[in-house]
Amino acid sequence: MLFTVGWIRGSDWSRRDSMDNRFRQRLFYSLKTDPLAMFLLAIVVVIIVMSIGGAWFSSYDPVKVDYKQALLPPSGDHWLGTDNFGRDVLSRLMHGGVASLGASIMAVTLIISLSLIIGLAAGYFGGWVDMVLTRLMDVLFSFPQLVLAIALASLMGPGLSSLMIAVAAVSWPSFARIFRSYVLTVRNEGYVQAAKASGIPAWKIIGTHVLGSIVGPILVLVTLDIGSIILSIASMSFLGLGIRPPQPEWGAMLNEGRAYIEEAPWLFLAPGLTIFLIVLGTNYLGDTLKDALEPRSLNMPRLFRSRRKRQRNESYKNSTQLLEVEGLFVAAVEGKQNTAKPILEDIRLELHPGECLGLVGESGSGKSTLALALMGLLRSPLEQTKGTIRLQGADTKDWEWSDWRKVRGSRIAYITQDPMDSLNPVLTIGEQLRECLTAHKKVGLNKAALKEQVVKLLEQTGLPKETYQQYPHQLSGGMRQRVVIAMAMINEPQIIVADEPTTALDVSTQARIMELLADLQKERKVAMIFVTHDLRLVAQIADRICVMKKGRIVEQGDVRSVFTDPSEAYTRQLLQAIPSLRIPSHIRKIT
Ligand SMILES: Nc1ncnc2c1ncn2[C@@H]1O[C@H](COP(=O)(O)OP(=O)(O)OP(=O)(O)O)[C@@H](O)[C@H]1O
């Protein structure tokens, strides 16, 4: 437990807006909806305030000996009793808090500063700098940390400063290794490459682009691990390496109380419980902070989170429409005043079994936002402000993440624009498809049966069975998109939302993927929402069409009538914008 470092997914942190207003709102929401977090926050605040204000709150001298008052049990005069020297335990606890918490905060500051400098340098510069620094970390890792810290503290002599230095000296490598891995991820991001290409000096790139992206995880690590640092300081003080007596410190008080555990248990319990509560509080609050930085987890059920009783409509009916959207409004809620910028307005559409609905419109018209809303994947600051989305008759208004999780993949599946976004580079295609399958069908399938099912589907999507063993980077763009289509089809959903599935492909691959989608859709009688800005693709695949402009559906109808007799000027403009295949005369002459 000593000197451990919390684990956080690196990719989730590379967001520049992690400390903005939205983060504060999410943090406030997390605290508000989690009574245990509020309770522990209150306890942590009380302990800190009592420690800082010990001199004002307590009328007893924490070091003055009075044998006549020795070992008095808790009473109105001495709320937590007295120790073997007749000193008030509460007063010692409050004064000891300054030493314990102060030393822990100083140690964390030292650890973070050191590990940041080393982690940033190793991750950003790579090469020999990285090699030397990581070898140094490896050497330090090869020693048992507590033993090394005790040895260092003993060498420096007892006292809080040597304790802090010893704890920092053995703890920084775990943090530096995590920071290095964040930096390795961020270093290859497009914006860092762009900054390098613009000739910005390395120190400036590290200070703004790299550090700015990892400030979130640093904060969470600090909150999560301050508890274990407090414990380390207390444990070493307990061993007599900390503050010199008679000055109070929690770990030292615990050690002193040990001898009287039967006679005067309050001597042991008071510092023990204080350490327990502060460690529990900081750990739990660190977790809450992590949730606030990771908005997806807010929708997930959490221990002790108060849940409003909701009337959830999960009953799927034999509705004639698979999907019905009525008066849907989506807005981007941002800023201190929570101003709502409308993104989608009064969207009404329906999807019948087996049909293909084309969703077209210029860039920024709201197609992808609508597709995400249909999957329950809207993320802050985007919010559904009004309207209903009914999935096979079930109203999704009050659905939580877990409700959506059950239907995603099994009833409604999603195909993204860029197949690389959907595929994990370190897992084989077979593993990824098996994972999708087992997410919804947990019983009755052994590994061989799963493989057989996956290989069959790969072949149906025009991929050789060897693809099962291959990694995404070993496939062409078209093959990857076929895998993503197989992934969407694997649990036989009734609806597929395909968001510009051919955008990242060349024209001939695009045509083959379109054929595959059309064939699978007809064979499996799946209904599809096909999002695109390319009207030619819609003409090829869709039965009906919705034309979007500035967040609204401006025209809706069957493909033939919209193409031959558009009622909206905007649709006419889109149709006129379809490029013709006429070859310019000067090129014709050459050819
Ligand atoms: N997270 C967000 N925060 C604020 N505004 C957003 C966010 N996501 C999208 N928008 C805005 O919503 C509008 C619609 O964007 P959307 O991506 O849905 O358009 P689109 O039609 O899919 O465009 P494209 O074809 O280029 O992908 C845009 O004006 C965009 O700026």
From TrEMBL:
Residue ranges constituting the ABC transporter domain according to the UniProt record: 323-575
The record ties this protein, via InterPro entries, to: AAA+_ATPase, ABC_Ni/Peptide_Import, ABC_transport_permease, ABC_transporter-like_ATP-bd, ABC_transporter-like_CS, MetI-like, MetI-like_sf, OppC_N
Q: Subcellular localization, per the record?
A: Cell membrane; Membrane
Transmembrane regions:
36-57, 101-125, 146-172, 218-243, 264-286
Q: Where is the ABC transmembrane type-1 domain?
A: 101-286
GO MF annotation list: ATP binding; ATP hydrolysis activity
Family statement: Belongs to the binding-protein-dependent transport system permease family. Belongs to the ABC transporter superfamily.
- Its protein name is ATP-binding cassette domain-containing protein
